[in-house]
Kinesin light chain (Noctiluca scintillans), 223 residues
Amino acid sequence: KEDFWNLGLVHKNLGDQGQAVDMLQKALDLYAKEEEECPVTVAKVHDSLADCHLGFGDADAAVASYSSAMELYRTHVGTSSPLYGASVDGLSRSLESSGRRGDAFDALVSALAVQSVVDGIHPTPLFELLDRAVRLHRGRDEDSIGEDPQRRFLEVHRNDEQDQRVELDRLVVHIEAALANLKQRGLDNDGNAGVVLQKAGEILLLTVDDLEARGERTQATSL
């Protein structure tokens, strides 16, 4: 089992999608027979397969594999575990790639809830989560929207059902927890923390704009 797993990772790193997926799927099939004895290991193989799918551009397959891993982690190590947080982060990235913005944002909120309070907190994954949140809020990469203000307005303010969940105020409590965690561990004064603070500030400003646009001035003022 472990040999198939390792071979799959080697083929992935070599860019051989077919062999990588085949080896990892064989490893998963073998480990799955012992799921009751090693559910976390099965989840980790699902993660490896999901990462492989996403790396080769198969976002839908990655969503399925990350979802399987996430459910196993949820059951056996809980939603506060870094393993769960990493898996739901991968799910968010996969959902974004498949164009499911609302689902991607839901998963991102769960990932940030874990990342903000972990003992091994680091600015880099925090920045990546916050940057993705802004990207999901805007609807697509700024480069693809261009500088046309009318087009930008239409992209940001589309009112389809998926977009209703992409509300940045859902992140505020987790951002506050993350910044407090960084400060407590003495990680708030280096350059990496600086980019996190910049992105957090951007999100807070966008949140105020959104709340005021929705008529929630009291909550906006509190930020």
Summary: Residues 191-213 form the longest helix (23 residues). Residues 19 and 157 are 43 Å apart (CA to CA). The chain is about 75% helix and 0% strand.
